[in-house]
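Here is one chain, start to finish.
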Amino acid sequence: MLILASQSPRRREILERAGIPFVVRVADVDESLRAGEAAQSYVRRLATQKAVAVGQAGEVVLGADTTVVVGGEILGKPLDAADAERMLGLLGGRTHEVITGICLKVGGQLYIDAETTLVRFVEMSGEEISAYVRTGEPMDKAGAYAIQGGASRYIDRIEGCYWNVVGLPVAKVFGQLRRRGLL
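Its structure:
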């Protein structure tokens, strides 16, 4: 049985929809960005730390972490409403990257990978940004938005895996599990 080292309800839903059986064991790791750390290195490191933190001998554990990058700036989860508005202001009228790192821990082996999806937002007015932030939806999401929620009206294009933007590149995870004979 796969152990999901994440408290994300979106990752749970993605695995359930894909028919991949799992149980949740939340990892408690420091998610701080290190000075000079690149976005892909950051999410791969956190995914690995999460998988290692909860894994026990003989278990198959999946760790994952997602971040957003726009104009070279890494956007994690907003600290408050003002930070969410700042982030959304950066995204309007631009294309950004959503990067998810995954780590599959199988016994003593670590299989680490990442997926990048490009997402383009249309221009958003200040009032549209404020109204969206008032819904509360942006507050626990990297980049301060949910593609599957209210922000969908502002996204006119994506290139890559939709599920990656939601929080887990499920086809990549499935491929990793299948290559190791775990499904």
